[in-house]
Amino acid sequence: MAAAIDGVLPGTLQELVKKSKVLVVGAGGIGCEVLKNLVLSGFHDIEIIDLDTIDLSNLNRQFLFHREHVGKSKARVARESALSFNPDAKIIAHHDSVTASQYGVSFFQKFDVILSALDNRAARNHVNRMCLNAEVPLIESGTSGYNGQVELIKRGLTQCYECTPKEKQRTFPGCTIRNTPSEPIHCIVWAKHLFNQLFGESVDDEDISPDAADPDAQGPPQEADAAVGGDGDGDGKKPMEEKEEEDATNGNVVRINTRQWAKDCDYDAGQLFNKFFDEDINYLLKMSHLWTSRKPPVPVSWDTLVPEGTTDVQPEFARQHHKVWTVEECAHVFANALKELAAAFLKQEAEGETLSWDKDDQPAMDFVAACANVRSYIFNIERKSRFEIKSMAGNIIPAIATTNAITAGISVLRTFNVLQAKWEQCKAVYARLRPNARGQFLVPDASLAGPNPNCYVCALDPAITLRIDTKRVHMKELRDDVLIKTLNMLHPDVNMMGTATILLSSEEDETTENDSKLLHELNVVDGTILSCDDFHQNYNLSIIISHFNAERDDPLFEVVADAKQLQPTKEQPKKETAEEETAKAKEERKRSANGADDGPSTSKRSRPTEIEDDDDDDCLVIEEDNDEDVMIVATDNLSVESTPKTAIKRKPSEAMEEEEDITEILDSSDEEEAGPTKCKRSRIEPSDLKIDPLLEVINID
Ligand SMILES: Nc1ncnc2c1ncn2[C@@H]1O[C@H](COP(=O)(O)OP(=O)(O)OP(=O)(O)O)[C@@H](O)[C@H]1O
Ligand SMILES: [Zn+2]
């Protein structure tokens, strides 16, 4: 109640604070801090939404939660804890996803300001769209290790969350994952795919079986056939996707998929283990061209590792998360995890659901760690501890409580500015690890970044060009891969522009017959304009189709945010010096940093494997005023028009590696595995601070 005491805030602001209604989206690391700050600043009318429950690993930084709250709703517990600071406040908690249909535009319109404290792009994109529609200012925040960011998003005034391109996720070719892994991450990705094939949402391009079509495996045609042909290979064993069974009565070939097969085996650990780590590897060995310049894999079989079968008891080593398990230990962990996951899956399946992989779910994580390590062993790749695999599989950058607290503090200060309509004081702020040349740890942008006129979300009439192989992409893929996964719609409807022809309906079963049709069969061809809309997001987008014939390994589509990008770009003008750069140029640069080099980025059906983006690492950090301009920009799969790129792109982890002083800090993960993780911190002497950095940011009046 600190700020509720008269005199702490200027009188007019105090009144505004008291009267306003705010929504906090996300009750995690930043969200808890934001809620606490809001209540202590005198906000009375608050709603908070979070879909998750409290995990043990949250407790080291989400201070509204305690041990007794583990397993309970984050939103509800956050509400209860915050009320203890001010029992008179009115706080409504929603234990729900912000993307759920009941939180439509009218819900968002109830609020004066929305503070988002999320951890994934899909939810952020959605909140961005809802706030733009509802015309409610959004204070968007994120942290990634020591880096933090707060920015205002306001329709017509600032850029929106989707105005700037997001960095492409690191990808791996499918055949590397399936046939020729050479790094631990390849095996980890494979293991996550295996999880999905068995228990998760089955994704076509997440096959885990050997890929006989791998170009590297092709020798002279007849040789290749002999090398990989299921019938001529001696044991007749084929990879799972091609596994066929003779129907005894009529000789029909019945194809079985991995999931069904595993179920039919009653999830027998030995059989599954042998299939994935012995038979499939033997099959790979027969693709002899793969191994002419590579070390061939060495299959392992269940009986040699677990001669006496498995035990029901979790052995001691299974909980030693910093230990690098032996391959025998992996086999034990595999068997136990498999048992638990199979039971959970069958239960879910009965309700028409599947499991989704979660690094904090013990059997799911055990399964991936064990399978990844067995595969690493087979391919002579360094094995990793469960702890290390968790951080790689979860794409984790340790969360730092202090960064969250600073970021949340700035969010609430920005809320004060918004309530007073002091827009010019709402510039984006970046929290940094080291002071910049001006001695700033908290670096505000030079000016408010205005909207991108070509933004496919906040422009007046949003439009994109979609280069797509209309002869190879089906309507279902247009919906799932382009509209939902890439353009972040939730329930898209698609019409042929200017006609009443509904190609895709969000109503169940209305256009199901179109799902399996190729686009060109539906007359979606070069030059067609599709009118897409998402009723829930109140979002309309025109898609101009530009057909191209994709080569075998090409992506089948790519989204181009500006038609000009289809033309080759000219050599860009020379880089301006930092001093010469106007604020506008900087903004341009920020927008284009990732689009320029990479060209139009893509998502595709037969696409390389992406490291999942389920955890937040999309913090954008601009280090201004340094000699070398450094940008850290994590972005997604869209590109915008190419503009001069003068910044060096680095991933947060790479940026960290350049720090000199190394301090060991405790990782933010499970208590039981709270071993030291290397993170780097530079020593900062007070004398280095030439300017009080806070003066730039704490600017309440
Ligand atoms: N669609 C959504 N609707 C509501 N809340 C969401 C949605 N997506 C994510 N969140 C919430 O946003 C919060 C983000 O907080 P944070 O980044 O600290 O993640 P966390 O899950 O608590 O921690 P960690 O990922 O490090 O284990 C989480 O509590 C998460 O449940
Ligand atoms: Zn925009």
TrEMBL record:
Specify which residues bind ATP according to the UniProt entry for this protein: 26-31, 50, 58-61, 74, 119-124
Q: Name a single GO cellular component.
A: cytoplasm
Q: What is the lineage of its organism?
A: Eukaryota, Metazoa, Ecdysozoa, Arthropoda, Hexapoda
Keyword check for ATP-binding, yes or no: yes
Question: Locations of Basic and acidic residues compositional bias?
Answer: 571-591
Query: From start to end residue, where is composition biased (Acidic residues)?
Result: 611-630, 655-674
Please give the family membership noted in the entry: Belongs to the ubiquitin-activating E1 family.
Kindly provide the name given to this protein in its UniProt entry: Blast:SUMO-activating enzyme subunit 2
Q: Which domain of life is it from?
A: Eukaryota
Coiled-coil annotated spans: none
Q: List compositional bias (Polar residues) regions by residue number.
A: 636-645
Which pathway is this protein assigned to? Protein modification; protein sumoylation
Which PROSITE patterns does the record cross-reference, listed alphabetically?
A: UBIQUITIN_ACTIVAT_2
